[in-house]
């Protein structure tokens, strides 16, 4: 089973974040992806009603290449649609262009009502 949610378990967040990014989580809350009860990914978000930021999203090496990162990222964006007026990615990646994000210097942004979720099958 795949699930995700916010947690303030600092020790677990720091361990997972360090395994993926090489340093502890620089926040009180991490958004953790679980695969069959095993923490497999973590995201750092900054959420406000006006503007929410996806700071980083990462998946443990053993879980990469299976679509979990894409699922996790799409799920996070889907939640943010209902809680913020603007979604910002704090880095530039062509991956986000498929969802309608626009490059704004060193970041990317979109208004939630313009967000699109293309099918992975190409249809």
CATH superfamily: Gcn5-related N-acetyltransferase (GNAT)
Widest sheet, order of strands: 1-2-3-4-5-7-6
Q: What's the alpha carbon Rg, rounded to whole Å?
A: 14 Å
Fraction of helical residues: 10-25%
Global outline: globular
Number of strands: 7
On the 0-100 scale, what is the average pLDDT? Answer: 95
Computed structural class: alpha+beta
Distance between the termini: 26 Å
CATH class category label? Alpha Beta
**Pattern of helices and strands:** EHEEEHEEE
Give structural notes.
With 123 residues, the protein is α+β, with helices and mostly antiparallel strands. It has a single domain (2-114), classed as Aminopeptidase (3-Layer(aba) Sandwich). It has 2 helices and 7 strands, in the order E-H-E-E-E-H-E-E-E. The chain has helices at 10-21, 68-81, and strands spanning 2-7, 30-35, 38-46, 52-59, 87-89, 102-104, 107-110. Strands 1-2-3-4-5-7-6 form a 7-stranded mixed beta sheet, with helices on both faces. A hairpin with a 2-residue loop joins strand 6 and strand 7 (107-110). The two termini are 26 Å apart. The relative contact order is 0.14.
Topology:
Elements: E1 2-7, H1 10-21, E2 30-35, E3 38-46, E4 52-59, H2 68-81, E5 87-89, E6 102-104, E7 107-110
Question: Which features characterize this protein?
Answer:
single chain, 123 residues, alpha+beta, Aminopeptidase, 2 helices, 21% helix
